[in-house]
Specification:
Length: 291
């Protein structure tokens, strides 16, 4: 099975700080680096490293093309990524070096210039057993998921950065919804109904250091986290999602998929950065054996 991911591709500007910045505060960073990122790119790399077959649909600045090699090296198919004469999407990621917590400022740029023709051409390669995946960091999310649903693909929606109205509108299309605890609460308030009572085929609510909760066709359960010391939590949710969806596309149960994904996310947060820190399947297997 193949995953078609309409996803953002960013350049991440990482600043490691003594603490997260407050309003009006000026603070010198202790470290700085640039890396490829974006929720879409992170999830595509996690999918590929977990063994999934993934086509990425997106847009990136032509002058930054060299950075895309990291996606290719991971095994992501970039046939449907457009190179544009405009700035790449980018994020300023500030990381507290003591806790690993982060604050992120996002500029969409090229990610909001994806065209319908890319989506149509990509989905011409799809089969009914495949998955379509999208987040909220690009344009055309609704048209992409609508067309994918019409073609019989299963829909995974990662509702971040969270937009209540858009998320609520896409619920009828969604087979697997993944949100964090805060997003779940905000969505429940917006639709005036507990989202765990909606009857979604599959709902995953990530709980950070408390693990992840599943409600759906395969029951209701909590997957506990692995006990690690976090260095940087950026990209942990994307790593988790990628491993879940790769395992589901390989025919594993949701319990198996989420357990493997929990291990992958735990290993990822022990490293600095987001996309470069995503572990391979062999690394995750060794981590599980050791823990």
């Amino acid at each position: 099975m193949t995953i078609f991911n309409l996803g953002s591709i960013n350049l991440d500007y990482f600043y490691r700080l003594p603490h997260l910045i407050s309003a009006g505060e000026t603070l010198a960073a202790n470290d700085f680096n640039i890396a490829l990122g974006g929720k879409g790119a992170n999830q595509s790399v996690a999918l590929a490293k977990a063994g999934g077959d993934v086509f990425h649909i997106g847009a990136f600045g032509k002058k930054d093309e060299l950075y895309l090699q990291e996606l290719r090296n991971a095994g992501v198919n970039l046939e449907f990524v457009a190179l544009l004469d405009m700035p790449s999407g980018h994020a300023i990621v500030m990381v507290d070096e003591k806790t690993g917590e982060n604050q992120i400022i996002l500029s969409p740029s090229a990610n909001y210039n994806i065209e319908q023709v890319q989506i149509r051409k990509a989905l011409q390669k799809a089969n009914r057993s495949d998955w379509a995946l999208a987040q909220n960091e690009t344009c055309l999310v609704n048209p992409f998921l609508s067309l994918a649903k019409e073609q019989g693909l299963r829909i995974c929606y990662s509702a971040a950065p969270f937009v209540a109205e858009q998320t609520a509108g896409l619920i009828p299309l969604t087979d697997l919804l993944i949100v964090n605890e805060g997003e779940a609460e905000a969505l429940s308030q917006f639709i005036e109904k507990d989202i765990t009572k909606l009857g979604l085929p599959h709902l995953i609510i990530t709980l950070g250091p408390k693990g992840a909760r599943y409600i759906g066709e395969q029951g209701s359960f909590l997957v506990s986290p692995f006990n690690v010391t976090a260095i940087d939590t950026t990209g942990a949710g994307d790593t988790f999602l990628g491993y879940v969806l790769a395992d589901l596309s390989d025919g594993q149960t949701m319990q198996q998929a989420m357990s493997h994904a929990s291990a992958a996310a735990a290993l990822q947060i022990t490293r600095q950065g987001a996309l470069p820190a995503i572990p391979s399947r062999s690394e995750v297997n060794r981590f599980i054996q050791d823990n």
